[in-house]
Design a protein that fits this description.
xylose metabolism; alpha+beta; Nucleotidyltransferase, domain 5; kinase; single chain; Carb_kinase_FGGY; kinase activity
Length: about 475
């Protein structure tokens, strides 16, 4: 009985699966996300660790038999600063944070982003570790002086539970890891002016590393001391593994808070002169990587629109059905994040827009235009990532049959959707089982799925709509200002 825990930005989930990959117990509880002036977004490590304890205790009490391991995954990026005991030296800075917007614009203009991309294949954005650490080095150097490690959400929880200072190779990938060697590129670190803070970066753990609950972690979770714990990969690659992505060229669309588009590759090579955006993620398999294009906003855009339009998320499907492909002439760009966009291009000043509106349009047209624009953004990301095989999907967005159909039609591809929504936890559990030497049947786990087929006539329509989207994007870029 392996408990999989997915520590998301706003929700922590724990799931236990049977040997066929069907969930038999699950629990969830919200995490607090603090949105502060100036585009700052922070979280409290103690509160997040508390959510892990809550869901683990709940599912452990609901299963028959002893827990054999704990498999952790969760949100990536941002900076979670801790001392040698695992205590936060300041509130965690989320991947959503925008305080480093101006710094990133400076790096973009000065060639720093291009230099790091040439060395690691990963772009940077305001909420990535490099930008946040550089900002703190200038504005809060005393915090960095007190810290023992500048890590991420998952390894922050791991340190609390096991006492180990570590980081998974997937988290470490952005932006300083050389994917070919799986070691930090020292020149990439130096180019960001962080050579003197190099000691804050934990060395990546070896593939399929196993840790163990210490006395404090055991007491917190109500589980035996010494219980095996695995830590990663973080939620993007964990979701790919959990959904069934196995072959190079296969991809996964995650319609969650982030709109994450990933494609599996068996080559560490990348175009150093390409657009310096996205992530080149190492996976538990040393011969495989994920080319990730995680756009900043997915379902967060829908939440915003629902609040603005005075409707509920549960009504989104019916609103989409009330409009038609093309939203009766309403068009949108979906860049609603205060920190701009990070994939498939990087621009801290990127902002959303709606056009073509008149008094004849209603809520349904606005909602459909936004959902279509997010699907166009997904197509843009997958073109950059090199999708050529089977496409899988997960996340809260694909619970809407109407929005999922828009994705399939815009992408011109059938979409395979796992029947169990907890694919991040599924991926973490599959990795844990293999790490412990008792792997599950991955093909059996992947067989619990359904397929959404595209509608050919809609594909033709959206081909023209995508061309209009690209034209609108090109025109808008010249107007964006910080």
């Amino acid at each position: 009985m392996i408990i999989g825990v997915d520590i998301g930005t706003s929700l922590t989930k724990a799931v236990v699966f049977d040997r066929s990959g069907v969930s038999i117990a699950q629990a969830c509880t919200p995490s607090e996300v603090h949105h502060l002036p100036g585009g700052r977004v922070e979280q409290d490590l103690d509160q997040v660790v508390g959510t892990v304890a809550t869901v683990v205790r709940e599912v452990a009490s609901a299963i028959d038999g002893p827990v054999t391991a704990l498999a952790l995954t969760g949100q990536g990026d941002g900076v979670w600063m801790r001392d040698e005991h695992g205590n936060a030296v300041r509130p965690a800075i989320s991947w959503l944070d925008g305080r480093a917007n101006a710094l990133l614009a400076k790096w973009q203009a000065g060639g720093v982003m291009r230099e790091v991309f040439r060395r690691t294949g990963s772009g940077m954005f305001p909420g990535c570790a490099a930008a946040v650490l550089s900002y703190l080095d200038e504005h809060e150097p005393e915090v960095l002086d007190r810290a023992a490690v500048a890590g991420y959400c998952v390894d922050g929880v791991v340190q609390r539970l096991t006492g180990e200072i570590t980081v998974d190779v997937s988290d470490a990938s952005l932006p300083f890891l050389d994917p070919a060697t799986r070691h930090y590129d020292e020149k990439a670190i130096a180019s960001c002016g962080l050579g003197h803070r190099r000691g804050l970066l934990a060395e990546p753990a070896p593939p399929r590393a196993v840790f163990h609950l210490n006395a404090h972690g055991a007491e917190l979770l109500g589980l035996p001391s010494g219980l095996p714990v695995t830590a990663g990969p973080f939620d993007l690659p964990a979701s790919a593994i959990g959904a069934g992505v196995r072959e190079p060229g296969d991809g996964i669309l995650t319609a969650g808070t982030t709109l994450a588009c990933q494609v599996l590759t068996d080559s560490a090579e990348f175009d150093p002169e390409g657009e310096p955006a996205g992530m080149f993620l190492s996976t538990p398999n040393v011969a495989q990587y994920l080319r990730a294009m995680p756009a900043m906003v997915g379902t967060a855009s829908i939440d915003w629109a629902c609040k603005l339009l005075g409707t509920e998320v549960q009504q989104v499907g019916s609103l989409l059905a009330e409009s038609v492909p093309g939203a009766n002439g309403v068009r949108a760009l979906p860049f609603l994040s205060a920190s701009g966009e990070r994939a498939p291009f990087v621009d801290a000043a990127a902002r959303a827009q709606f056009s073509g509106l008149s008094l004849e349009h209603g809520r349904a047209d606005i909602m459909r235009a936004l959902c279509e624009s997010i699907a166009y953004a997904a197509r843009h990301c997958f073109e950059a990532a090199g999708l050529s095989g089977t496409l899988y999907a997960c996340g809260g967005g694909v619970r809407s049959a109407e929005w999922t159909q828009i994705f399939a039609d815009v992408l011109g591809r059938s979409i395979v959707i796992p029947s169990d929504p907890g694919v991040g936890a599924r991926g973490a559990v599959l990795v844990a089982a293999e790490s412990l030497g008792e792997p599950f049947d991955v093909e059996l786990w992947a067989s619990n799925s359904r397929t959404v087929e595209f509608v050919p006539e809609n594909v033709d329509f959206y081909q023209r709509g995508y061309a209009d989207y690209q034209a609108s994007l090109a025109a808008a870029k010249g107007l964006w200002r910080l």
